[in-house]
Write a structure and sequence with these properties.
Blueprint (H helix, E strand, L loop, with lengths): L6 H12 L10 H12 L21 E4 L5 E5 L1 H10 L3 E6 L6 E5 L1 H18 L5 E6 L5 H16 L3 E7 L8 H14 L4 E10 L2 E8 L1
Parallel strand pairs: 1-4, 5-6
Antiparallel strand pairs: 1-2, 3-4, 6-8, 7-8
Helix pairs in contact: 1-2
Length: about 210
């Protein structure tokens, strides 16, 4: 059908593009359609967003940085590649948008390993703040109060927030001041590790207070 790129032709053109056979502006109808479809629907990777290494670097000349960080000047890419190969290293594009592009001679395998290691270490250092809940009742005895408050202290020391919930039963809700007194006691005992982020407020048959780590 006229104006329609058949699947077999598309596959052929896509293969040609991977091999670098399609260069320059799209000059005929099928190539123009291929360019449009590959960008819109088929998720062809944008090569400007990935690191080019060795023979993948085609733009020439390039500004070369040595393995020791020294400036080696502007060279033809083939010459820069030979220098890297003579040292048993790789030629890596580090600034693709610069004019001319900037490349560096380095051990790319070691570089990728170090980057992955740094990413893992950074991830370990990240702490996702969680909201932990500790529940009390107005008539709580000292033993239960101390146990629950120790839990809340541990959560705050782990840099998590604590939702302190005062639960009422039956007619207890008619005397919220009793529950508030317990919450004030909790806040006082944890003042060295936590601060009140949201003061206690009555919601139905409970009062909630949020404590944040200091």
């Amino acid at each position: 059908m006229r104006g329609v790129l058949q699947a077999s032709n598309f596959a052929h053109l896509r293969s040609m593009r991977r091999r670098g056979a399609l260069r320059g502006p799209c000059g005929n109808e099928q190539v123009r359609v291929f360019c449009f479809l590959s960008q819109r629907n088929f998720g062809i990777q944008d090569t400007t967003k990935r690191v080019r290494v060795n023979r993948q670097i085609r733009i020439t000349p390039v500004r070369v940085i040595g393995s020791d960080g020294s400036q080696l000047g502007i060279l033809e890419v083939d010459a820069a590649l030979r220098m890297a190969e003579d040292q048993g290293l790789d030629l890596v594009e580090v600034a693709a948008t610069a004019r001319p592009p900037v490349v560096r001679i380095m051990d790319y395998g070691k570089y990728k390993f170090e980057m992955a290691k740094q990413a893992r270490q950074a991830k370990k250092k990240q702490h996702v703040i969680e909201l932990k809940e500790v529940k009390y009742r107005p008539g709580i005895d000292d033993h239960d109060f101390d146990t629950k408050t120790r839990h809340a202290r541990r959560f705050l020391e782990e840099k998590n927030k604590v939702k302190v919930t005062m639960m009422f039963r039956g007619r207890q809700v008619a005397h919220p001041e009793l529950g508030q007194a317990v919450l004030d006691r909790v806040a006082t005992q944890l003042a060295d590790v936590g601060k009140i982020e949201s003061a206690g407020r009555l919601e139905g048959k409970s009062i909630t207070m949020i404590l944040a780590p200091k």
